[in-house]
Amino acid sequence: MIRFVLRRLLAAAILFLIVLTLAFAVVALAPGDPMAPADPRIPPEQAERLRALYGLDQPLPVQYLRWLGAVILRWDWGQSYRTGQPVAELLFDALPPTLLLAGAALLAQYALGIGLGLIAGFRPNSRLDLSVRVASLVVYALPTFWVGLMAVLVLAVGLGLAPAGGMTSAAAFELGPVAAALDVLAHLWLPALVLGMSMAGDIARYTRSSLIEFQATEAGRAARARGLSETRILLVHGLAHAAPRLLQLASVSAPLLLSGAVVAEVVFAWPGLGTATLVAIQSRDIPVVLAATTYGAALVIAASLAADLLLTRLDPRIRVE
Amino acid sequence: MIPVVAMRLLAAAGLAAILGWGCASDTPRDKTRLAVGMRFEYPTPNELLAPATLSYSAISNQFFLPLMAERPDFRDGPPTWAPGLATDWEFSEDRLQLTVRLRQDALWSDGEPVTAEDVRFSWLAQTDPEIPWSYSLYKESITDVEVVEAGTVRFHFHAALPSALADVSTGLILPKHAWEQRPFAEWRGDPSWFFENLVTSGPFLLENRTPGQELVLGRNPDYFEDGLPRLERVVLRTASDGAALTNLLLAGEVDVATGLGATDAQRIANQPGLRLIAYSNRQFTFVSWNTRRPWFQDAETRRALAMAIDRQAMVDTIWHGFAEVGNSPIISSVWAHDAGLEPWPHDPPAAREALAAAGWTDGDGDGTLERDGVPFRFELATFAGAAARWDAMQMIQADLRAVGIDAQPRRVEPGALIQRMREKDFDAAASAFAIDTSLDLRYAFHSRSIPGGDNYAAYDNPEVDRLLDSFATRLDPSAGLEDLHRLQRSLHDDQPILVLWEPLTLAAFNEELESVEPNALSPLANLQEWAWR
């Protein structure tokens, strides 16, 4: 097992290095000058001074090695061209809100997906089953951006059931810890639900098919023969049967959740990695773009690794060699 | 069984609390504070390190003051100046020195007085090459800043220039005693240090900052103007997307939204309780025709292009009316604009005639004009991400197609396109300029600005050069009005650029706010006077 873990960690590290290199190459080879002043009254010498200050006057291989060395040895991602803030600090501020949103969305996704899958799996091919399947498909097909906008317009702006955006209310720094937590949760539930809904359809379909499949297995027939109730058979044994596959889905969800988070953060003015990345792309803030891309890739690699390791624990059919 | 019931009740109570917390409430408004939504995050209170944008300086101006501030009266005449930290100022006879007296009652928020030493320190920082500040060019005319006494400072200039007051007033006065402990060479290393060591002389001080979310400004009790600011607290909230910002405003979570797009403004326009304000921002969007390319070498052809393109349709459909058709780089809201200039009309038949007179004909019948064997087919570029301009490119393409010209729109990364435009490696391109009230347009139209500069069209007209040089050296700009009118007429006739529109800046305010007067210089221009009714 330890050898397996080490091997996976080594593969993850190599993958991470490839991502770093590719991200640098794509950004560095893109046309244009990030230091070009937008205001024509600013003389070009100012841009040259800034270029020298940020090391952009060096040949590309030198820039790459310096950047890679700083990242690997000191976790130093340089300074934002736009704000001058150290990028590691900037993303350190942006990462927790994204993890909170993505985590809550994952919960919402599984709660909704498993719930709907159970409803559909209880009575396969019934009207209820058909409705759930159609609804799952429709929700899956709708773009997160659109669903988010509609949710804000109807639930927040129209009905006032949730705040229209942000992670906290204005001047929330004055609130006590309980009130502050409630304030964040009040701002969190709608974006998390919208983001979670986009993948819940998949979970529902997998849960349903696993439950139907389980009922046809020997274990399913044995459980019924022992006189267990249908509810217990599906809720306990059926879900246990579905668990490894659902867990595998989590690793597939991670990149989708992260890319979805970018969209949801913009729609809900949520101050996370997605918003930071979008602003950085718009302002050609290369150090932030590079770091955000790599953070995203690292999160996906880590989620995939964690899911693989958990799977080896949960599914007795999988053997580690 | 009981624990299960208790847990269910607890969960229900928790859910009710969360939903209840998030629900809009009818509690009376706290009239001491205001929430302003902005589409950016304020990076640092040190303006020398921030990107050069009006949005950032609108906030910096709440913390720090300049010696004197430009009044928003540019519609009536050349710029005039209102006292800031200075009470009065006086030029020497040869105009090579300017003596400025400071307010005696201006204090930093830690109780230290604002002195001439702060003024000299600010100038040293503004001109230090290790910082380097985007607008240090405004300080090139100043050779020294002399501390005469604690309350008096003298500026020395290398020549008598019309821009002297503008040069002195550009940039805010920074706290020497608080910031000199950090060498200039280290300033760019950590701009957030200035948040932690912020003392202010302006109407507000920093109460709290949550990165990515909000900046809370509190009333500066040491501010020298009695009774100002009228608000105790202003919360500046960040929403990078225009639609998200509009939603915050419509839901009542912010009271003011600045930097709105035309579509957002339409959503707000008829909402009860909100007031939409559209005001000039001294910008104009234009297409540069590269006169080194065979299609754009003669003025007759360029005038025909102006008549072929329907700019009013762009204003109506892209801007929903929140812009004006432009016809001069000295825009209509500036005192020196030549009101006698009529925009070239949208007149496709006249455009076809003018093109034929210039030698453009469809000899091979393929629907595209040619001259000397060169088909009238060119690339029309604009910045990737500039949505309004991209829409305009599509409309220009259709308009030109109707007169036999094949324009091919293309989006290019902004830095790359600016580089290409400076190197004259483009056919035609749409971009935008913001003008300042010096009205010194040599950077855009003087032949000296062709090589590597921002005379993108490579426009070379000796008469225009002479007018630009003549105006730039006049100590009294108003005496140069005739020069500026002749300049505009030359540009109007020659059409090296086609001015498409003058956009308006859009901001929305809660109707219960009073004394709100945003202007081209700042959306938060007189924030210290804002109050709830």
In terms of topology, how is this protein built?
The complex is a heterodimer of chains A (321) and B (533).
Chain A: H1 2-29, H2 44-53, H3 60-74, H4 87-122, H5 127-141, H6 144-158, H7 177-216, H8 218-225, H9 230-267, H10 273-282, H11 286-314
Helix pairs in contact in A: 1-11, 4-5, 4-7, 4-9, 4-10, 4-11, 5-7, 6-7, 6-9, 7-9, 8-9, 9-10, 9-11, 10-11
Chain B: H1 2-22, E1 33-38, H2 54-63, E2 68-70, E3 81-83, E4 86-91, E5 97-102, H3 116-127, E6 142-149, E7 152-157, H4 164-169, H5 176-179, H6 193-196, E8 204-210, E9 214-219, E10 233-238, H7 242-250, E11 256-260, H8 262-269, E12 274-280, E13 283-289, H9 299-308, H10 311-317, E14 323-325, H11 348-357, E15 370-371, E16 374-375, E17 377-383, H12 387-401, E18 406-412, H13 414-422, E19 428-434, H14 442-445, H15 462-472, H16 481-494, E20 497-510, E21 513-514, E22 531-532
Parallel strand pairs in B: 1-10, 1-11, 17-18, 17-19
Antiparallel strand pairs in B: 2-3, 4-5, 5-7, 6-7, 8-9, 9-10, 11-20, 12-20, 13-19, 13-20, 14-20, 15-16, 21-22
Helix pairs in contact in B: 7-8, 9-11, 15-16
Task: Report on this structure.
The complex is a heterodimer of chains A (321) and B (533). Chain A is mostly helical and 321 residues long. Helix content of chain A is 76%, strand content 0%. The model of chain A has no long low-confidence stretch (mean pLDDT 86). Chain B is α+β, with helices and mostly antiparallel strands and 533 residues long. Chain B has helices at 2-22, 54-63, 116-127, 164-169, 176-179, 193-196, 242-250, 262-269, 299-308, 311-317, 348-357, 387-401, 414-422, 442-445, 462-472, 481-494, and strands at residues 33-38, 68-70, 81-83, 86-91, 97-102, 142-149, 152-157, 204-210, 214-219, 233-238, 256-260, 274-280, 283-289, 323-325, 370-371, 374-375, 377-383, 406-412, 428-434, 497-510, 513-514, 531-532. The relative contact order of chain B is 0.14. The interface between A and B is large, with 71 and 68 residues.
